[in-house]
Amino acid sequence: MSRESDEEARRREAERREEAGRRAEDAEQAVAQARRELRDVERGDGAGGYYLYGVNRAGTWRAGLGSKDRDDVLRIRYRDLEALVRAVPFSVPQVDRETVQEHQRIVWNASKRDTVLPAPAGVVFKGRRAVIRFLQEQYIPLEEGISLVEGHWEIRLHLKPSLPEARSGAAEAALHVYGELRRYARAAFPFAHEDEHVLSAAFLVNRGSWLQFMDHAEELGHRHGDLVFDVTGPWPPYDFVRMTR
User: Fold this and answer.
1) What is the pTM of this model?
2) Cis before residue 234, ω within 30 degrees of 0?
3) How many CB atoms lie under 10 A from the CB of residue 25?
4) Any idea where the domains of the chain sit in the sequence?
5) How far is 17 from 202, CA to CA, in rounded Å?
6) Pairing outcome for strands 117-118 and 152-161
7) What is the 3-state secondary structure (H, E, C) of the chain?
8) Are the CB atoms for 190 and 201 separated by under 8 Å?
């Protein structure tokens, strides 16, 4: 046998082993998923409710979660969409600071590698069927929402005048800053801001270029000494999602 043929045989053997490893891993994951779904039904029936974290495309979110979250966060599927939920007692949730922080932590971890359409904190459905009905009735808006934010982070910008007496001039400068940064975002919009601010806005920025966006914001900050910049992110795209039940 020639050296070339020998190398080809070794390559094919390596590919065969790699494929066998993938199949074994897929089988292991399928068994684990079946067990999780059984727990899902048992826990959901006992608890009566499902707390919603967000929606994503089927089969993507578990890679970004820690082991504890993978056990606690369940998925309920309709077609190619999955709701990320946790089994809870069915009641009006108390949306306090701790609840919001835990909600944001779960959504952030799930969003690290794949796109999640985040739900607002505090949404609880009564039973599994209610979750599926939500996915069914809102299928097109949810699909369109995922398509909009897929592969993007949210960056938030807050601007206030460096001198309170220069507020009118700062407001005009803030609009210029918004227009400049809008060029580097897929979508953007201003939203209600605190009294001390002259502008607050959200920008939908490609995950591969969000650092460049931050650089542009920093450069504009150097050019506009009359404004105080507060730029935060990346965030899951909360402000670009409007979920309805």
Assistant:
1) 0.70
2) yes
3) 10
4) 3-148, 151-240
5) 48
6) unpaired
7) CCHHHHHHHHHHHHHHHHHHHHHHHHHHHHHHHHHHHHHHHHHHHHHEEEEEEEEEECCCHHHHCCHHHHHHCEEEEECCEEEEEEEEECCCCCCCHHHHHHHHHHHHHHHCCCCCEECCCCCEEECHHHHHHHHHHCHHHHHHHHHHHCCEEEEEEEEEECCHHHHHHHHHHHHHHHHHHHCCCCEEEECCCCCCCCEEEEEEEECCCHHHHHHHHHHHHHHCCCEEEEEEEEECCHHHCCCCC
8) yes
| Closest listed residue to residue 104, CA positions, set 239, 219, 238 | 238
- CATH 3.30.70.260, domain 151-240, yes or no: yes
Residue pointed to by tokens 């190398």: 7
Query: Model confidence over 32-82: pLDDT tens digits?
Result: 555 555 555 555 444 589 999 999 988 655 544 554 555 588 999 999 999
CA 217 to chain centre: 23
